[in-house]
Amino acid sequence: MDTVDAAEPLVIFIFGVTGDLTRKKLMPALFSLYLNERLSEFRIVGFARREWSQEHFRDQVREMIANVGGASEEQRNRFVQSVVYLQSTFEDPAGYEKLREHAAGFPNRIYYLSTPPGAYEEVIRSLGEHGLARSDTGYVRIIVEKPFGRDLASAQSLNSLLQSCFDESQIYRIDHYLGKETVQNLMMLRFGNGIFEPVWNNRYVDHVQITVAENAGVGTRGNYYERAGALRDMIQNHTFQLLAITAMEPPNDTSPDSIRDEKVKIIRSLDPVTHREPDRHVVRAQYSAGVVDGSEVAGYLTEDGVDPESQTETYAALRLYLDSWRWAGVPFVLRTGKRLSRKATEISVHFKHPPLHFFGPAGSPLQRNVLSIRIQPQEGITLNVNAKIPGYATAVRPVSMDFAYGSAFGPAVPEAYERLLFDAMKGDNTLYTRNDEIEASWSFINRILDHWSTQDGPLPQYAAGSAGPDEARGLLADGDRRWRRV
Ligand code: BG6
């Protein structure tokens, strides 16, 4: 199904509509879908606790879509007229009765759960109890924002509650990294080309690095982040998804379950060696004060909402192995952190050296071939190869073969949320995570969290604006393996 019948009336309820996600991502994405004629007979109902008037909400929405270009005043007005505010607590039965009234006349319904995670269960249960989880006239789907649980037990209990009210086919667990064009292109790169798959294994690959670096700090989210930390916030979900797509076997076809079956196998094949010796394979740290992009910034412990004695990690790096025929013995090193020198998400595949080294003076090894896939920014793919420097001598230097999205396709790449919302409207959950994927990743992560909970004392520090803690170097200190520059 590649299309949506935009004329099929659809109502979208956003729970927790007053939050940042609606402002920054959801409303602009919905407005773009409307401009691209993917939404025509629709209503958007914002459900939240704050005492906002209808008028105030509409003014807010007008601001939220102000930066979406290419729209006429008339289109903006029509969109703003289609949004409605529903003020209610998440517990109040009257709120759900009002919701039912707003849904009248719209056979199709999408609920978007973007409340603080503490309210998820209440909303899901209430939708179930009020008979709002099903409809005889159209579809009902629920999109659940992250965080999906904070450990295995809470993720399992959220899954079972969801599944007691909705069918799995109605549930869309979001991981916005899957909506990124460059992440989708990773599958195209691997399975739409003949030249990569033959070398995509332990015979040719030395190791793989996955970096999700951010230069931003925790900003106004100190309260949330204190209970999360880098492992929960970025590794369990986004980074593991990148790992799964990089390492998965070719699926039988492109159906949602064929793809997700292969991804979950990767997470299940993670070698427990990481758990046996966590301190050898996992590094965590916290940023201290430093300089980012020329400005002095505070350390984590003095950020708003952060306990001055906090042991929450803002950086995590892991060396993982996959127990599989294809990948046995190949380290996959993952790292993520806040307040690093720049924002960069990249997957790099480092190939083995050729069996004999003919060129250059003895002892000057050739550089490895590296295929680097830039997820963001400067989206693109680069392959480094060794080339002969022109001249009489036989000297070698690495050069790069480049593909840049900007020059190949122009700058207009749809936002992740736009694509994901569109897929939910189509009923395609390929780019959403399945219950077993989430539980498998929590079950792996949980054992590291358990280990950390037995440790005491301050965490290693790294200066804001740096490449991360020195301790992470040891994860890749073998031979000529090095982390790529952040
Ligand atoms: C979110 C995390 O899921 O992803 C944030 O909660 C993080 O802490 C963000 O900053 C990163 O997303 P992106 O798309 O900017 O890489």
Structural features:
486 residues, alpha/beta, Rossmann fold, Dihydrodipicolinate Reductase, domain 2, 2 domains, 9-stranded mixed beta sheet, 6-stranded parallel beta sheet, 15 helices, 34% helix, globular, binds 6-O-phosphono-beta-D-glucopyranose
Please tell me about this protein's structure.
A hairpin with a 7-residue loop joins strand 15 (380-388) and strand 16 (396-404). This protein folds into two domains: 10-145, NAD(P)-binding Rossmann-like Domain (Rossmann fold, 3-Layer(aba) Sandwich); 178-416 and 435-476, Dihydrodipicolinate Reductase, domain 2. The protein has helices spanning 20-35, 54-64, 73-81, 93-103, 120-129, 152-165, 181-191, 222-228, 230-247, 256-268, 273-276, 278-281, 405-409, 416-426, 435-453; strands at residues 10-15, 42-48, 83-87, 108-113, 140-144, 171-173, 205-213, 282-288, 290-292, 295-297, 315-320, 332-337, 344-351, 370-376, 380-388, 396-404, 461-463. It contains 15 helices and 17 strands. It starts with 9 loop residues before the first strand and ends in a 23-residue tail after the last strand. With 486 residues, it is α/β, with parallel strands linked by helices. The site of 6-O-phosphono-beta-D-glucopyranose (BG6) has 3 residues, from loops. Residues 146, 214, 233 line the site of 6-O-phosphono-beta-D-glucopyranose.
